[in-house]
């Protein structure tokens, strides 16, 4: 198996117990598996793919159509990474033309629940964030 660009051949563990948890400790170590996973699942394309696959099985072309601005290459890369991480399943049907469906795995579904909580928080606080942005912009541009 080839290693993904930017990952090390033998990733070190950086798990901590709650008592030892220090917020930035995982973020400073490039070889940290937690950091690598967070980098993957928190990027905008992965978030959109995971959100769209909630209780849906979609074809590549359907995903591409629904994700505004994503290139075919980026969608392919994102789906491969999510499949490698066990978050998305890929089913190929032996028909002509080939048919490939993507769906969330059970692990991916648990991540979707977490993402939905983040979206809900964002919706609940978007007006407060807009006010804070306005205040900041006025202060910085004054």
Automatic annotation (TrEMBL):
<dbReference type="Pfam" id="PF01638">
    <property type="entry name" value="HxlR"/>
</dbReference>
<dbReference type="InterPro" id="IPR036390">
    <property type="entry name" value="WH_DNA-bd_sf"/>
</dbReference>
<keyword id="KW-0804">Transcription</keyword>
<protein>
    <submittedName>
        <fullName>Transcriptional regulator</fullName>
    </submittedName>
</protein>
<keyword id="KW-0805">Transcription regulation</keyword>
<feature type="domain" description="HTH hxlR-type">
    <location>
        <begin position="32"/>
        <end position="130"/>
    </location>
</feature>
<dbReference type="InterPro" id="IPR002577">
    <property type="entry name" value="HTH_HxlR"/>
</dbReference>
<dbReference type="InterPro" id="IPR036388">
    <property type="entry name" value="WH-like_DNA-bd_sf"/>
</dbReference>
<dbReference type="GO" id="GO:0003677">
    <property type="term" value="F:DNA binding"/>
</dbReference>
<keyword id="KW-0238">DNA-binding</keyword>
